[in-house]
Design goal:
Blueprint: E1 14-15, H1 16-23, H2 27-35, E2 42-43, E3 49-51, H3 53-67, H4 72-105
Length: 116
């Protein structure tokens, strides 16, 4: 077995039973997420669902949102907005880094004069 695969958060390493145990949920909960197309695990050669760590994180977040009283549609929207927010934060950090690098290369400022 290639143990490096276990470092990949998208590697489908967990059966439905293992995933349910790790999340503290019943197996039908995970199957319902699959049937709704929200968390779609890969299938083994025998047709069994196999979940990745990434998918377990999504399923866990969905469970938290359901526990807070959200329905499936609102939980999906919240997940989408959380993902967009994280992507925006990464982009802001990247742009700030780029600006800092430009400032180091051109200490006189963007206009080219030393008065700013």
């Amino acid at each position: 077995m290639n143990l490096r695969k276990l470092d990949d958060e998208h590697y489908p390493a967990f059966s439905t039973g293992q995933a349910a145990e790790l999340l503290g949920v019943e197996q039908p909960f995970l199957r319902s997420l699959d049937n709704a197309g929200v968390v779609t695990p890969q299938r083994s050669s025998g047709g069994h669902r196999r979940y990745s760590r990434h998918q377990l994180g999504l399923a866990n977040r969905l469970r938290e949102l359901f526990d807070e009283g959200h329905n499936l549609a609102s939980a999906q929207r919240i997940l989408r907005l959380e993902r967009e927010l994280e992507e925006a934060r990464k982009e802001i950090a990247r742009l700030r880094q780029h600006l800092a690098e430009l400032g180091e290369q051109h200490p006189e400022g963007p206009t080219g004069d030393s008065t700013g």
